Amino acid sequence: MKKNRLFFLLPYSLWILLFVIAPMILIAFDAFTGSHGEFTWSNFVQFFSDTTFLRMTLNSFWYAFLITVITLLISYPMAYILSHMKNQQFWLLLIILPTWINLLLKAYAFIGIFARDGLVNHFLSFFGIGPANILFTDFAFIFVATYIEIPFMILPIYNAICDIDPALINAARDLGASKWQVLGKIIWPLSRSGVESGIQAVFIPSLSLFMLTRLIGGNRVITLGTAIEEYFLTTMNWHMGSTIGVVLIVLMLIVMLTTNRKRHHQEVR
Amino acid sequence: MKKKHFVWSRLYMAIVLFMMYLPIFYLIFYSFSSGKNMSRFRHFTWAHYVTLFHDDRLLAIFIETIMLALLSSLVATLIGTFGAIAIDQAKSKKFKGILLALNNILMVSPDVIIGASFLIFFTALGISLGFGSVLLSHIAFSIPVVVLMVLPRLKEMDRSLIDAAQDLGANQFDVFSKILLPVITPGILSGFFMAFTYSLDDFAVTFFVTGNGFSTLSVEIYSRARQGIDLEINALSALMFVFVLALVFVYYLIEKRRRFKKAPKRG
Amino acid sequence: MKKILWSAFTILLICFGLNLTAKKLDGNVSANSKRTLIIYNWGDYIKPSLLTKFEKQTGYHVIYETFDSNEAMYTKIQQGGTNYDLAVPSDYMISKLRKAHLLDRLDRRRLKNFKNIDPIFLHQSFDPKNNYSVPYFWGTLGIIYNDKFVKASEIQHWNDLWSPKFRHNILLVDSARDIMGLSLVSLGDSMNTTNSLDLKLAKTKLDELGPNIKAIVSDELKMYMIQNDAAIGVSWSGEAREMLDSNSHLHYVVPKEGSNLWFDNFVIPKTARHKKAAYAFLDFMLEPKNAAENAAYIGYATPNRAAKKLLPASLRNDRQFYPNQSAMKHLQVYRDLGPSKVQEYNDLFLEFKMYAH
User: Fold this and answer.
1) Which of B39, B199, B247, C146 maximizes the CB count within 10 A of its CB?
2) Chain A interface, mutation test: which of B25, B87, B99, B113, most A Cβ atoms within 10 Å?
3) What is the pTM of this model?
4) What is the rounded CA–CA span in Å between residue A142 and residue B21?
C-alpha cells in the first residue's frame, strides 16, 4: 500500500513544488532584490513611503469592496427568488450561461453600449438628457465588473439557501414568524456560509481586473492588478511588480485568516 | 398579498436576467449591421460572418483555444484526481492540512499574481513562452479545482468496501479500478468540466505567459478590442453564443438520458 | 475504468485532429519551419495586402505579431522566449536594444534598395552608422482636436491642454516618454532631460492635468476621436492622418515650442532564426512602389525618397505631416537615457496614471 500511496502523491507533490511553492519563492525573491540582484528592503520602503502607492492600494480595495457589496445586494434577492421558483435547473442554467461567454467579449460589448453614440446615450437622449460621459468613468468600471461577477455570487448563495432544511422554515412559520422574520432570523444566518464564499469568489478577482481598467476604465482606474501588470509587462520593473504582489498576498492572507477565525468561532458556538 | 409579492420577485428576476443578456444580444444584433460601429444599425448583412470565416488566424486561434482547454483539463484531471486520492490517504491530519492549504493557494490567488509568478518561474528555468508555457500554466491552475471536486466523493466513500475487497483478495489495481474509480467518477467528470471552463475563460494568466505567436481567444479579443470596434468580433461572439447553447443542449440530453437510466434503479 | 480511459483517449484524438486543422489554417507552417518570417510590429502598422503580396512573391509564410509599446516589445525580445525575425522599435529603443547586444548587425550589401532612403534620416544618434536599423517611418507627436468642440486658436500649445475648458475631454496616448515629454517641453525643458528634479516637476504638472483627462488609451484612441467621443487627443502624426481621413472635423497641430521627432526602424533581433526571409522582406519593403503603397495606407511619413515621389501631391505637401526644415529644428529625437533613467520615466508615468483622477 505504501508504494501505491507514493504513486498517487508523486505527481501531485511535484506540481505543488513546481507551481505553488517555487513561484511564490521566486516572487518573494524578486521583491527583496534590487536591479543588481542584491538583497534590499528598498522596494518595500518605496512602496510604504510613497503616498501614490498607498493611495492606489486603498483605491483598489475600495473598488473591490464596492464591487463586492453591489454584487451581493443584487445577487442575494436573486438567489432567494431563484430558490423559490419552479424549474430551478432551467433558471440556474440561464444565470450560468453568460459566464461561458468570454469575459473579454462582454467587456467589448460595453465599449459599444457606453460610447457617446451607444445604447445608453440613445436611451438617455430619448428622455431629453444630452449625451453623457459614461465610458471611462468609475461608474462604468464598477458597473461592468459587477456585471461580470454577479453569477459567481448568485451560485454559492443559492446553494446555501437550498441546503437549508425546509422543516426549519415551516416550523418558524407555524410558530407565527412573519415572512421577513423568517428571512432575517433563519434564512440569512443559515446562508452566511454561501455569502462568505461568494464574497471570496468576487472580492479577490476584482483586484486583478486589469483588462477592464484598460478597456472600460481608460487607465484612469489603476488597481493593484493593473499596477502589477504594468510593472511586469510594460515598464519591466519586475522587482517593484513583485513587491506589490507580495503586499497583495500578505493583505489577502490577513483577510482570509480573519474570516476563517470568524467561521471557527461560529462552529464553536 | 402573496400574489403581489410573486409579481415583484418575478419582475426583479426578469430585470436582472435582461441586464445579464443585454450585452450579449447587443453584440449579436450588431453583428448583422452593415455599419462600422455599434451605434447605428444600417442594414442587414452577413458580411462580417464571411470575413470571420476567411480570417484563418482567428479560426486557428479558436481551435487552438479549445485544444488547449481539452488538453490542459485532461492532464489536470489526472494529476488532480491522484492528488485528491493522496490527500485522502494521508495518515497524519497535519500533513493533510498542509496539503490542502497548499492546494488552495492557487484557488484564492488573484490571476495577476499567478501570471506574474509563473512568468518569473518560466524565465528562471529558461522555458520559452508559447503553447508549452500556456499549457503548463493552465494545467497548474486547474489542478486545485479538480482536487476540490473529487475530494468530497472520496470522503463519502465507505471505507469498509475497500477492506472487504482486500480481504477477498483483490489486488491494489482492482481496488482502484473496480471500487475507488466508479465512486469518484462523477467528481472526476465535474472536475474535468470545471477545469475546462477555467481554461476557456482565462485571460490574465495567459496574457502573462504567452509568446512566440501563440495566442488564445481571450488574448486575441483583448488586442483587437484595443484597436477599436470591429464587427467581426461581434460575429465571433454570436457564433460563440450558439456554440455554448449547443453544448448546453447536448449536456441536457446526456443528463436526461442518464437520469432516465438511473430512475428504475432508484425506484 | 475502461470508460474513463476511452474518453481520455477520445479527447486526445480530438486534440490531435484540432491541432491538424489549426496547422492547416495557419498556412501549414509553424514558427519552426524554415519558410517562415515572424514580424513583431505595432498594431495596424503595415498594409495587410503587402504581406500577402510578399508571401505570394517569395513563398515565405509571414507570422505577424503586434505590441502596444516599445517597452513591452523590449520585454519580449529580452525575455528571449520568442524568436522574432524582424521588429520595429522606435529610435531610443533601438539604441537600448543595441547597447544590450540584442540586435544583429545588418549586412547592407544584401539590401539593394537601401539607397532609396533619404540621407537626412540616416546616421541618427540612436544608430550613428545605420549598422543595425533600416528606417521604416518617421513622424511627430502632436495634438488632434475636433473643431466641433474646440476652436483652432484655443489649442496651439502644450500648455493649452491644461485649460479648464477641456475638463474630462482629453485622450492621451499610453506612452511614458511622450506624455512625460510633452510636460517637459511645456516647462521649457528638454524631452531628454536626465535631471530628476525636472522629471518630478513634470510629473507634478501632469498630475494637475488629471481632471481634463478622459482616458489614457492606445490604438483605440483613433476610434474614439473619429466617433467624436472626445474633443482633444494627443497622439502621433500617422495616427492623426488616419483620423483626419475619417472625420473632417479633426485637425492636427504640432506645437511650435517643440515636440518629438521619432523614427520607427526595422531591426533584426539576435535571436532571429530566419535571416534570409528577413532580408528579403526588408528589401521588399524598401522598393519604392511598396513603400509608397504602405505609406499611403498607414499615413505616416516615409523616409523613402523614391517612394515619396510616388505619393499624391496632397499627401506629400501637407506641412503638418511633412514639416519643412525650419519646423524640424524645434523637434527633438528621443535619446536612450540608460536603463535607470528610462525606468524613472516609466515609473513616474505609472505613478501619474495611478494618480490621474
Assistant:
1) B199
2) B113
3) 0.85
4) 18
